[in-house]
Specification:
The complex is a heterodimer. By secondary structure, chain A is mostly helical. Chain A has two helices and no strands. The two termini of chain B are 12 Å apart. Classes of the chains: A mainly alpha, B mainly alpha.
Amino acid sequence: MSAALAMVQEVAIKTPDTVGYLKFGYLAIGAILAAYLVFLWMRVRKARHS
Amino acid sequence: MDLRAWNRLLWGLAVVLNAVALYMVFFYAPVEIQMGAVQKIFYYHVPSASSAYVLLFLAFVFSILYLWREDPTYDLLAYTTAEVGFVFLTIVLVTGPVWGRSAWGKWWVWEPRLTSALILWLMYSAYFLLRLFSRHEARSARVAAVVAIIAFFDVPIVHKAIEWWGSVVHPKKVVLEPPMLRTFFVSMVAVFALAAALTLTRYMVGKAEERHLTGGEVAP
């Protein structure tokens, strides 16, 4: 367990761009929610026009 | 107050609360020492998981009610809550690996919680495929209800996975400093408000589709 933790910490030190990953994470959340809202809007349009 | 007014109120609340939550995440909550800035994904990752749990539980309850009463409204409610729950589950499964890549050095680890969460996502994918591609509405609604009931049993497994089988990447207990705790609380309320707004909007879309199919003879 401690060996695995040490390995994880070692790799974490080698990947210091944590702000980049943070931005990527929140952009991904925004993209998923935006895609779902577009999907709902298209269904409303389809129901109205067909 | 009718559904449209409730929908507007919920969306207004969701927008304001999420603006406050995002401000607190980026400008108020301190940076965690070990993991750095990426730890702030936590403030939307965990509330998204909680929202997914609640919505999938509601889908489970409405599916049972549909099988019992055969009322199409329960079917629409089950479909609605499962769909929005699936969106939040997708957020969890996307943000988790982004956080993991930065904190653990790996996008994915085959450990109990991640694996059971992926199985849950795949089971609900099957639920939506069944609903989208079946030609027999009533029969597919009944089969989908059974799938939603079976799939829900994975939710407590996902939640308890660390306690039951342990994990090299997920901590058993998280201790937060007071500013982190405040940010987490606001994020939790904000994500639940967003989930409620999305659920009501999706329910109204379902009702609009029913009105179109039946020529307007649907109770509000």
